[in-house]
Design goal:
single chain; globular; transmembrane helix; DUF4181 domain-containing protein; membrane; transmembrane
């Protein structure tokens, strides 16, 4: 199970790095200027906070593996992480009009969300 959580740390690290690319890949310098300044700020702040959460989660998976597996708090973190990825997977389909599954990027990230569910559920139920 430790190996699975190390993979989880890599998974979170990659998502953190992926979110770091949003400004360039999603052309936020120009695209976000088209919306209300408050919404522009909120989008960027939320992205910065999720980057922080992904990196923190990665750190926990790399350096507190035993605690995640063996303590009640660690188990709650695993449950919460699994629920995070379950919710994110559901949201992908709720917003499929804006994020069509037929798009290769959306297909890959949706599969990665589902992998996240498995990574954090399997150690908890084992």
């Amino acid at each position: 199970m430790k190996t699975l959580l190390i993979i989880g740390g890599i998974h979170s690290l990659l998502f953190g790095l992926f979110h770091c690319m949003f400004w360039n890949k999603l052309r936020w310098k120009t695209v976000l200027k088209k919306i209300d300044p408050g919404n522009e700020a909120v989008m960027q702040i939320l992205n910065l906070r999720i980057i922080y959460i992904f990196f923190l989660h990665s750190f926990l998976c790399f350096f507190f593996t035993d605690d995640l597996l063996a303590t009640p708090l660690g188990n709650m973190i695993l449950i919460g992480s699994s629920m995070f990825w379950l919710g994110r997977t559901i949201e992908q389909f709720v917003y499929q009009k804006q994020l069509p599954f037929k798009d290769p990027v959306n297909m890959v990230v949706t599969i990665m969300f589902m992998i996240g569910i498995a990574i954090y559920t399997i150690p908890f139920i084992s």
